[in-house]
Each structure stands twice: as structure tokens, then as C-alpha cells.
Amino acid sequence: MSDVRNLVERYLATWNERDADARRAAIDEVWAEDARYVDPLADAEGRAAIDATIGAVQEQFPGLVFRLAGEVDAHHDVARFTWELGPEGGEALVVGFDVAVLSGDGRIATVHGFLDKVPAA
């Protein structure tokens, strides 16, 4: 279980990495080559598209950070966890719930994201 938690923490770190080269290197380590990320607002297939999605989210929410909110629950090749996005040390503006499917080599193959709390338009 600690390996899965570590993978989830590394996954969230990719969402916080502002240096484009470092972020892409981290994505290549954490995500399977043919990975897919999908949530109500995005559908990204492949590492390059996932990288572009993360960059777009960072532009939309400058200065905010993703953090794990609670424990990671996992079995077999599936993990679920809640995350928050907000200012460092401050109240979350966005809260989500992700379900990650792991590949045979322990990387993330697919993330199904759900948004539980979003800012009012």
C-alpha cells in the first residue's frame, strides 16, 4: 500500500511541477506511455496530452497547489483518493476524487477524475 501511496503522491507532484522539463520527466516516470486522463473538463490521451492538460490547469489556477486529502484506498491495480487544490496552507478552492488504474509495471495507466467542489462561475 505504501508503494501506491507513493505513486499517488508523485502523481500529484506532477500537477504542482511548474518547470516544464521537470514536469515532463516526472510524467514519463509516473504515467504509462499510452496513459489517459479523463475528468468532466478534460480528456487527454498520451503523456504529451497529459502534460498539456496539467500546464493548462496551472495557467487557470496560478499559485495554487494540489495536495492529498486523506488516505489512498487501493486493491489489485486500482486506487482511489481525494485531492484538494488551493493556496499553500489555505482552504481548498477545488476538491476532487480520482480513481487510478495502474499498469503492469506500476505506472498509472488511466485516471478517472471527478470534481466534488468547484469555484462558482
Entry summary:
The chain is α+β, with helices and mostly antiparallel strands. Helices cover 33% and strands 40% of the residues. The chain has three helices and seven strands, in the order ααββαβββββ.
Order of helices and strands: HHEEHEEEEE
Estimated structural class: alpha+beta
Tell me the overall shape: globular
Return the CATH class.
Alpha Beta
Distance from first to last alpha carbon: 38 Å
Task: Determine Rg (CA atoms, Å).
Answer: 13 Å
Total strand segments: 7
CATH topology annotation: Nuclear Transport Factor 2, Chain: A
Task: Please count the helical segments.
Answer: 3
Largest sheet: 7 strands, mixed
Low-confidence stretches: none
- The CATH architecture classification is Roll
Domain SnoaL-like: 8-109
Pfam family, one: SnoaL_2
InterPro entries: NTF2-like_dom_sf, SnoaL-like
Keywords: Isomerase
